[in-house]
## 1
Amino acid sequence: MSNFSVSFRHRGDVCVLDLTGELDAHTAAEFEAALQKCVTEGECKIVVQGKDLQYISSAGLGVFMAFVEMAREGGGDIKIAGLQPRVFTVFDLLGFPLLFDIVETEDEAVARFNGTSENTSADTSEDPA
Amino acid sequence: MARCPHKLSIPSRTSQLARVRRAVASWAAEAGLSSEEASALQCAVDEACANAIEHGYGGKPNGTVDVEAKLKADVLVVTVRHHGKPFDPKQHQLAALTDIRSQRRKHGYGLHLIHKLVDDVRFKASGHTSEVRLTKRRDGTANGD
């Protein structure tokens, strides 16, 4: 039984993925399939809503990494919203905020697709402590 | 920790990782780790078990991963053992995290995460058994002591 689910909805031309539950080495394939579907269908402006995501491991982080360049090359990005502190900590420990636009609210993430603050700079910063 | 050590054996299937996390959360709470310490240890053990399943057993489901927790003074030590392909850290140069990220690699973050989440990481391989020992220090504030 999977303790993870992902569902799709749209806000204008932005595809919002609602993640619920625990994203680990077992459930990462489900998230990967969802992102693959978005990119394959040309929906490259993606917001991942993480307010109901209870847990993430490196397998889940790897899925974000696998698709971010595809989304950017398609004219979009993967932006991440609403992460709970314990989930954000995992992103932060591995320096993912250097590569991903991680914001507090879904509204803010969607708004950033309207032309501001895309975090696509080269990753040359030091690793976090 | 009243019942020490705690032990859990799982089949080498990633579907069992959630079960491991529940067990570690319970052991950590019983040992008096704070919520943040418990979450960190839970994630580190999850990563170690995932490595055992995916690399030790190559994803084959017929192996066993043993998880054991011992409370020693102010630290909780969790040992993850498998009996698959031995892991020798001397043979595996850990790629720099900046390189892994800049190459947008999907894999390679787990060991980095383990090292950042716990206070000490020790690997040991003997015969057909490989183990990683994860030590998490208890800061003593969870129970107000």
## 2
Amino acid sequence: MIISSGKTVRLNRIFNPNDGRAVCVAADHGWMSDPTPNVLELRRILEQVVLGGADAVLVSYGTALRMGNFFHGKNSPALLIRADWMNMPRLGGSNVSNILPAVNFKKQATSTAKDALLVGASAITIYYFIGYSDEFEAINIEQAATFAKECRKVGLPLIIEPMAVGAPVTGVNITEILIASARIAAEIGADALKIPYTNDVMSFKKLVDEAGVPVLVLGGAKSDEPRDALELVDEAIRAGASGVVFGRNVTKARNPRGMVSDICALVHGNKTVNQILGIGAKKRGRLRPVAANCTGCQMCEFVCTHYHSSEYGQEKSRLRIEFKYKPNEPHTSKPIVCPLCEKCVEACKEGALTIGAEGYLVLEKERCNACGDCVDACPLHLVFLDDDKPILCDLCEGNPQCILWCKQRAIVLTEIKESKQHVS
Amino acid sequence: MNINVGKNIRMSDFIDSKDNRSMLLDLTVTSSIGAQPGTENISETLKQYNTIFDGIILNPGQLEHHANLVGGKLRAAPLVRVDWTNAYRDKEFCLPAATVKRVSLSDGADALTLGASAAVATFLLGFGEDLESENIKSISLLARECYRLSLPLVVDIRPIGGNISADNYTGSIKLGASFMMEAGADALILPECEPETCKLIGMWATVPVIMRCDEVPTSEKAQRMLEAGMTGIVLSEKSLPVPGFDGKATALRSLLHQ
Amino acid sequence: MSLKERGYADNVLRVDLTKGTWTTERPDPDVMKLLLGGKGLGAYYLYKDSEPLVDPLSPENPFIFVVGPLTGTNAPTAGRFGVVTKSPATHTFLDSYCGGFFGQTMKFAGYDAIIIEGASRSPVTLVIDDDRIHLEDATELWGMTTLDSTKRLKTKYAGFQTAVIGPGGERMCPIAGLFSDERTAGRGGAGAVLGSKKLKGVAIRGTGSVKVYNPTGFDEAAWVAYRMLRMSNQIKRMTEDGTANILGLVNAAGALPTRNYQEGQFEHSSEMTGEAWRKEYWTRSIGCYGCPIYCSKIAHAKTRDIAIDGPDFETIWAMGVNCGITDKEAIIYSNYLCDLYGIDTISVGNIVGFVMELYQRKMVSAAELDGVKAEWGNGDALVTLTEKMAKGEGIGELLQKGVREISKHFPGSEGFAMQVKGLEMPAYHPNAAKGIGLSYAVSDRGGCHLRGSPLSEILGGADPLKTDGKAELFMTNQFDTSIIDATILCYFVKFGITLKEIFQLVNPCTGFEYTNPRDLERVGERITVLTRLFSAREGFTAKDDILPKRALSEPLPSGPAKGHVLELGPLRTEYYHLMGWDENGIPTDKRLAELGLKELLA
């Protein structure tokens, strides 16, 4: 038997009753930081978010009033209201480009639970900042306790968002602080938490276990690589999280709808990150350098070496970064990668080299006599002999590491649609 | 005629009206320093101990979420901690407190809504006059609210500040007890102190006085406390992760409620 | 298991330039576990191998190249190297770090440290091709700019990485650094020490690799570290707008030293931000080895046919804000001159700011400055004075010695000679950021922001004007930074990962089984204390942990920190106390024993 029906009914609107999980999108950034494109185009983005199948959307009070239409209907996302305000994004700590930077940390309670309830909210979300100063934390606790009392009175769920922020927060204590803060928030009266990932599954599991209330992981700053956000969701779910509240990784994504549905596939669909990104489903393609994007960091060289030899180095890389030195100007660089020209295949009289069925170079070691013809044939000098066997680009058997690691996309994979007839 | 029926009824939820004895468990330090050994999973802890104790002190959030595990005729009555402090964050904690703060977490009306049988407030001593005067103010307001609402107010006296030394420790307990009697507390929780101090406070306090222990006292020690006029014992979370806790706690219960 | 399986090369090269000979030795694994490598290893050798009170420019001062356990691995920014020696600028311990591609090459060549001893009679270059080593005559290179000598070496030794000094280092001027391509180990006069040894540079090639203790665990940790860097807003900002992305924030806090620290806010700051430079000048980014940040921005001058790596935040501040200058062409060209002649841009900008204040106060005339009208905002004056310093000509002969030496010639100017122990202070005003102010006073190498300054206090992490908790904040930052410098990673990873992630990399790399990040933090403390012991042995005490009068008793006239001075005394006392040092700033025997240093140095 459940007596507090208000909170129960409203939590059921947020968390899917079948799996007890929720995919929430935070779209309250315009309330606290600069009017960036994700703020200015919120209406368009929210349309996408709804289509992606978000379970709930977190917005400010004002946005709820203006854009209430997104929350109409049984299958629409539940409305979560941000009931407080703070200036953290405008402090240097998060270092966004600020119209009006701030120096000292401030926070205010801006709505009441009742206000939120009256506009149809299914929960309110408030911050709990720990780590900046004892005074500031006490203000946070006091505000959170007031909200907790109001929420109990009106039957509205309270989502507390603990954040370990401030100079005293270091690598030594950040995980312990987050774990403690999750429990502290639950003690005060949080019905669910929105909290940063601790960046390892084990400690996050401890956090979830000790919190004792549903934990939603937040995404934080946006990565250019959607994989990063999805991995984070995957790890958090494995640690026992009940879902996510993702903001910028969704609202700033090129395709917010796709991002939400990908997250839903992880959270509700039990899919893996690789399944969602289509990794493992080997794509036929060839590497193509984009010289203008290359910064010369040589990460591609060392991940290539490491993938093939388990050592850390650059000597045995199957691609290389070529540097150019002009007078009176710092160097420029470009990747030299195997374009699958097949000159080596043609040169191999023993037929040890072929383009395999999956579209990458395969060496049949038994047939190779280490004659070095392939080495001589490579117009880019990428093939060399090591331990009497030719070393050449095998596209990491269809999952090129250079592409996975190159953040600036100086190497891309051009897909080959038709399988090419090749000489053998 | 009893003038405050409500308070008396609620008080009897956690102080046995037959023998006037009480055995409590305090699980609230977690609001300051997170989960502690033995309290990682609060519902497990409650399931395990809710029939051994007469009352369990919980923070508001835990009481709300685990109300089905407390209260009623067979189980420990819930008492709610109405304040938060970082005073327990010592060097062992990941974020030691530099400035000690105490803020309110709940109030009388909220405590009643939660179904608590009493409000438990913390009176911190030895942290300087700013904190002390704030603490006095908030407990006075609470005492008046609790009177209007017929909710028992228990005050937990904690002389743990930097100004407390071996010399003034006992005196500080007396001072705290005296202040809180004057403020309108319905029961006091004292830190461990000499039997003479207990006796003295027990004599002039006209309300139940309960002693806080970090480990289950031996039967001799418990006997001495009772003889010194104590109404009972509140065990802190520190007593939980000790081997044989269940047996010792059960034995203590039999001793208290002979 | 040997150190070779634990991320190290397990090999130290010792080169005696006096005799022209070299030997190798194996480092002690116990020392490695206690001090990790990099800064720690360099500090250990410097302490053990040098006699107290040697002249830093004498053959008796060792010069040590170091890399760390993470160098050359797939950890982010793991291509850096450090140099450790006694500083000719401060006479204290000196460590300075440099990006580019030299560090990982040194590791791949098979060295954890290269110790240069003695001095050559004539200029030489040290050429290292894996384990093949030779010293070759560098008479032709002597006198060449860094760019020209680098080009010559790289042409002769294709596929090698280089580190060279410029004419500034050859002249042994205390603001001279060491240059690897466009990257610099700039501060504290490392270049001068090499100049005194007549070592023009090092060319190195390494074809080896690094092995770690637990590759699976290491790969996971490396992936998480990169992921966190990719997901950090601060890193993203640094990628977009370079290190100067914070200029507006520092200015907003009133902590941007303006016109030689007379003010804390610059009225033209919006023209000097990373954003402004990006729009006007920056054409592309270059990355150091394994760096996902690539803060290096390339600026092409409009009025001259040159392009430089930079200017970075500190240079923009030193040559711009600190001199009241907004002329970007002048800043670019001055930066270029510094690179060419091998001197430090922070010190140069600080010196020019100091000269400009002397000029403002009519303590120096244009005639005494070879005709330069050193007015605030005068870009031409900046260029001319920089050139004179770079070449050591005219007034430049005095100026190149740093503000402490210059101020001795201008009685009454000591109070606004903005240096600590002889090292010119950087871009954060000590009056407006109390923790940073403390760090300047007690850091290993004098007025420096990269030896534990809690920059977070002006980036929103704490109230910069409060002193509460700042000693502790500086202390923990100092330990963290020591670990970054021991492993060796780039300082900027701090903006995306923490000591926890470094701990997660160090354990599988070394197999040393540090129990938790706090345990690793103790290693950082041990290194910090070791460098303190070195300087204490040189005679440094609390009386040297001091800032100029401007910081201590001249309240800032305006801005958010208006009216503020640095309350150094109590902060310093608190810091010594927290560190377990005596009131004179000397580590106590008790603390040394607790840290295992007593035994180590016995």
